[in-house]
Amino acid sequence: MIESAPVIQVLDESTVHLIAAGEVVDRPVSIVKELVENAIDAASSRITVEVSTAHGAISRIRITDDGVGIPSDQVSIAFLAHATSKIRTGDDLLSCRTLGFRGEALASIAAVSYVTMVTKPKESETAIRFRITGGEVVECAETGAPNGTSIMVEEVFFNTPARRKFLKSLQTEVTHITSLLESFACLYPGITFRYLVNGIEKYSTHGGSDLSDIFRALYPSEAGMMIPIRGEEGNTLVTGLISLPKLVKQNRQRFLIAVNGRLVQSPAMISAVKRAYGSLIPGNVWPVAVLMLEIPPAEVDANIHPTKREVRFSAERKILDLLVRTVRRALEDADLLDLPTEPDEDSQISLSDIPSPAPTPIRYGTMAAAPVARQVCEATLAGYRTTSRQLLQTRLQESVDEGLVRDERFPELFWIGQVGGTYIIASDKTGALFLIDQHAAHERVRYDKLKEQESLHLKTQELIAPVVLTLSPSEAGLIPSVLPVLSDEGFIIEPFGQDTWCVRGVPVVLGRYEDPETVREIIGTILSEDDGPVRLKEQVLRLVACRSAVKAGAVLTPEQGMDIITQLSQTADPWTCPHGRPTIISFSCQELSKMFKRV
């Protein structure tokens, strides 16, 4: 039997709206983005965002502004697809400076939720209350209200239950909104933003502030490590803040790029900034940055995708080069010397530790640095104690260690020395040469020990002095969702006020003197991750292993070096660290002879 071809037909208007809404509104944060951008376009000086939750989901979103409002005879038109006051013809796209122009946001939001708008222009005596449900108008009447617009969105995706199933946890969805509003606050320091969740104010900013003030309010612990940038070429201007090399993140969550005030995603710009940092930061981390570019609208195409998060430039190479030069110049002008504030009382002072009378600040971009005083790594009492403690903590479970045996594939090695405070030099009975990365090797030992301790009850020790973490609102909002995983791994973390948490205990392998950056790094790494508990657990294990292992640069005694070699030989996979980097490389006598042209 031959099947007939399916009939082609035009979709009904309701289905068309649902499909279009899926391009613009895919989760609650998309609603907040579109409505806040509308409020900014309406010349608002104050914007309030209120989020309410119920039954494990976001139940209501309200955006209130004091902008120009919408005239009563245009309210219903505003909810029609492709209805906008921003442009009139296609030629207007070449000069449009507003965040919105496609006329899709209100229609898309109204297609998948219950929307109530109350709006009043300054020249009008009364406001209009307009209710629309699933694209159908329910109410349009006069009411009393202050100047501006208030939009309340309820029952999001009530008519598209499949979309609801793909939403992440409530905490994750709220954190996305929090992070977005932090971005808007940074990009528009002249606007007062107020953000509430279930009636509790998460933060508010003061309009008229500059970017540094906003950053200081949102991220107080990081503000002191940010430096301003400014670069200009022709009609293109770059301004913002970038972090000193000592402040980096494990993800791009705190890397903001705005083009003409619009938050965008641009891998090319991110690569340009990392290229400007060069070797100042590792390749697998990202600096903190707020980059604001002003470019003539005719040279930017923001009409690539309905969300307008992707843009194209007519002169991309020129813009990227300007970005690289601007960031490099800011780093060159900054003092990158990071001296300790107080000497360690356990440190053993040597002549090479005494600084010159007039130290020259470390500057980025010099072709060749002058010789510095410290040319040879020298052991200190404090460093010896730290390394001994770290090695001891991977031998805490004596009963377990007794059962460990050396991997037969692992050669029996003998200590020769250490180079650069980083690599152990060893040899075997055949005379082959072995180089061992001491940090990667001990990281593998730490990781295996953590995996080993998963079945043990005792893996937490209380800190002598609790560590208090002051976090950004988005970081603080994330902690409850990852707290079970952190607790399982041995962290004791308790709320300690607004956006503040107190760390009272850490995993045994971290030691008793851990600094706040370990927990901050763990939280920062998983901040934007939507993986399940198993994946988060693995991330925590790897980070704890890395931060608690013997560091590169630590001078070892022969006994400590052999201890690392012995412990590495007893691991299940001694050849790589948990991140996949090699721990040991070898050169046979024949290979060495070839290198020296002896054979």
Automatic annotation (TrEMBL):
Pfam families: DNA_mis_repair, HATPase_c_3, MutL_C
PROSITE patterns, alphabetized: DNA_MISMATCH_REPAIR_1 (PS00058)
Gene Ontology cellular-component terms listed: mismatch repair complex
Keywords, comma-separated and alphabetical: DNA damage, DNA repair, Endonuclease, Hydrolase, Nuclease
SMART domains xrefs: DNA_mis_repair (SM01340), MutL_C (SM00853)
Keyword Nuclease on entry: yes
GO biological process: mismatch repair
Record has Hydrolase as a keyword: yes
MutL C-terminal dimerisation domain boundaries: 415-556
Function: This protein is involved in the repair of mismatches in DNA. It is required for dam-dependent methyl-directed DNA mismatch repair. May act as a 'molecular matchmaker', a protein that promotes the formation of a stable complex between two or more DNA-binding proteins in an ATP-dependent manner without itself being part of a final effector complex.
Stored HAMAP family: DNA_mis_repair
Annotated PANTHER family: DNA MISMATCH REPAIR PROTEIN MLH, PMS, MUTL, DNA MISMATCH REPAIR PROTEIN MLH1
Protein name: DNA mismatch repair protein MutL
Organism (species): Methanospirillum hungatei
